[in-house]
Every structure is written in structure tokens, then in C-alpha cells.
Amino acid sequence: MLVFRGFRRSVAASTVLTIGNFDGVHRGHQALLAHLIATARGYGLPAAVMTFEPHPREFFSPDTAPARLSTLREKLEAFAAAGVDEVYAVRFNDAFAAHSAPAFAREVLSDGLHVRHLIIGDDFRFGAGRQGDFAFLQAAGRSPDFAGFEVEAMPTVVQGAERVSSSAIRAALAAGDFAKAETFLGHPYAIAGQVVHGRKLGRQLGFATANIRIRHNPPPMQGVFAVQVTVGDNAPLPGVANLGLRPTIAQTIAPLLEVHLLDFTGNLYGTHLHVAFLHKLRDEMKFADLAALKQQIARDALAARTFFSPALPSESSNSQNSLSICHG
Predict the structure, then answer these.
(1) Which CATH number fits domain 2-159: 3.40.50.620, 3.40.630.30, 3.20.20.140, 3.30.70.860?
(2) What pTM did the predictor assign?
């Protein structure tokens, strides 16, 4: 898969394109991508995706923008896995936001990406003031003022009686409804990132942790969770994780994901972890001192152990775990 910054193709060949934020790449997005790829194969053209960084709502209203479900890297990985050929990651800034609907159709779709066939969600809006919609694109595609392209709207994907959407997944995660989030995503919600060094306080408390700085700020949920952790192609490992601001130790400005792997010995510094959230154990809390925190962590580890299997052995070798904790 080729990834480009901006919306200019290096060759003057046509594309089959879809456009969107694709936050979480949920089942609705997956259906759209599958249709995109099938359509592109029928034309014998590249299947292309245009997405934005940052999310337009983060650009226009950073203080009230919704929590992100996925980083750009995670979206790119999902696109590649789906079979997308080209991705155009467009920097959403003042200049791009100022494009009128006609200018967008001409400069981006016709001249920039040479679109032959465009597939969009049924709620897609674009251009300054969100003035562009499906009807406008259909008219533009037939107009002699543009290069000419076909436009198709993908219907909404419904699960039960509810529309599958990023906002519905955010609400499910915030409410601790991980079963619903998994149904809408097609897989457990997960965060991936690189393990970083820190203060090694977790080892002192008897529960060493692998720590990942979070780029989702704010994250879609906070608290303590039973998680499944995958390192590379290895089998997933059970664990317990805290996602939040660590109010007892030294509250951080940016959220941190701290993962304690049950019965694990090894060094994961610098490795890339995939952390899947399976069950919420409790909300993040502030404790009176480190002794109280240590007691609660022990209860959290036991709760996670029970969630995975009451047959898991009791924790007896925390001191052998060579991971350390990171201070924000």
C-alpha cells in the first residue's frame, strides 16, 4: 500500500476513491472498504482512500472534539489489511478547510486524484460551510466543467436497530459495554504503541508494568481493565491495565497506558504492543498513599485473573518481571 501526504497523484491515472475520517475503522467502514476494493478491481484501477489529519472536528473545535478511537498509524494498518492500494492523508488546515464545494470537486477530485468512481457514506458533507453533499457531487460528476466521475453512496450499516458509527462505539466504551463495542468494531477495541522507560515504580510495588504513551488525548475511556496483550506474532497474553492520568502517583497531563502482564518474565522495552480491552474492572481512583494503591493493584490483578480463568495460577513471581513503569 502506498501512502501519500496531500491529494496529488504522482501519475495522471484514474482512481476509485472513498473519503472519510474512518475513526476506529468499524464494520460500517469495513463494508465501505470492501465495496471500494471490489469496484476498483472491476475497473482495473487502484482502490484509494482519502482521510484527514487532524480530524476536522479537532481542527474546528479542539476543546469539544470527540475522543479518538484510532491513531493515523492504526487506520493505515487497517486500510492495508483490507487491501487498499493508496491512501492520501490530507493535512486538515485553514487552507484545506477554505475549499468551496466546487473547488474541492475540481482541485481535489478531478485534478488531484483523477477520480473515476467515488464512493461515500450517505451522510458525507464537505467544503467550506459543509455546503457539498451527495447531490452536489452527482451533478459535478456529470458536469462538463469537471473531468467526469461517477458517484455512489454506501447505505448505513445497522446492527440490531442501531446505526454502526464511531460515536456509538465511543459511547459503548465510555459505558464499559465492551461487548457492544466489539460487535460494532468486528474485534475487541485495542490500543497499540511502543513500550517506554519510566520511574520503575511498578516494580517497587510488586507489579511491574509495560507503559505506552497514548496519542488519543483524551482516550475514549479511562479506568482499570482486563486486557489481552500481543507482542509481534506471539500468542496473546492476559493482563491488567490502567488507562488514565495516574492521580495517586503524580497526575499527568497526557494519558498513559500501564499494562501488567500476568505471570510474565521478560523485557519489552522498545517493543510494539497491541493491547485489546476485554472488560472494565473499575474507574480510575486516587488513593491516600502507595500502600493503599499497592493493595488495590493486587485486587485488580486478582479480578483480571478471575476474568480470564479461575484456573490461572496465583501470582508468585512479580519480582522476576523485568518491565518498569513510565512517568507520563
Answers:
(1) 3.40.50.620
(2) 0.84
